[in-house]
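Subgroup meeting minutes
Present: P.N., E.W., G.H.
Scribe: E.W.

1. P.N. recapped why we're keeping a running log of single-chain structure predictions: easier to compare across weeks, and new members can see raw inputs and outputs side by side.
2. G.H. added today's entry (165 aa).
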Amino acid sequence: MSARGVHFAVTAEQHARLLDAAGNDDTLMAVVENIEETWDEEFLAESDKAWDAMHRCLTDGSLLYESGEYPLNHVICGGRQLFKCDDHTVALVTSEQVRDVASALEPVTKAWFRERYFSLLRQDDYNGEIGDEDFEYTWDWFENVRGLYKKAAASDRAVIFTVDA
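Output recorded in log:
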């Protein structure tokens, strides 16, 4: 288990298949695996293991999926939980929500993100090594995710976040 996160900006057809499969875990995971195997680099953003710190920085510092306020709490683990178990998560952000998320991410500065990183992360609750190196690692992956949301909003696409914890 790698705990590496990936965001996929899905087509309308993929979005419909995800919604049709919701509630049937085997079918849903087959749809997700198909999206992952396609690996459309133009419409995906990896976040490696930085997704954890990103979610905490954009919410209230916790890893709870429902933490924080909309729309920033939808960037990583928010939105509709299509699949959630101990070792895998699939969260869906609709195309309408994607536009809100992209708009909310646009003004995020490195200074703001850094202040959130160092004030919200606690070593007793975070598996990473809090410090400048981890912050830069998190910021770099954050910029990838922000870019994907901007592209997804411009293309009227929904986004799914997947992680195998």
